[in-house]
User: What shape does this take?
Amino acid sequence: MDENCLPEHNDVLANRARPAVDDSGGSPAMVGETVIFRMKDNFHEFSIDLETLLGCLAFAQSQGAVPQLPSDWWIWIHNRYNLGSDA
Assistant: This one.
């Protein structure tokens, strides 16, 4: 972990979420038009929607953590998922 971070921040970084898949393959699920992923960290189960994940991908791209995706792809994603201008 980063020695420049507060101890609480290091705890958060060490508690990574992963898909919570049961025997029936319960993740992801469609709720109306929304794709919802069931996630689990060391202490909780929770859900996260595809729109949130796409926003995270847009942020990662803006920071250079992932390669640039084509503009046409982002336009399609924005139109399909009604993402705000910050994604």
About this structure: The CA atoms of residues 53 and 82 lie 14 Å apart. The first strand starts at residue 18 and ends at 19. The radius of gyration is 16 Å. The helical segments are 7-14, 50-62, 71-81.
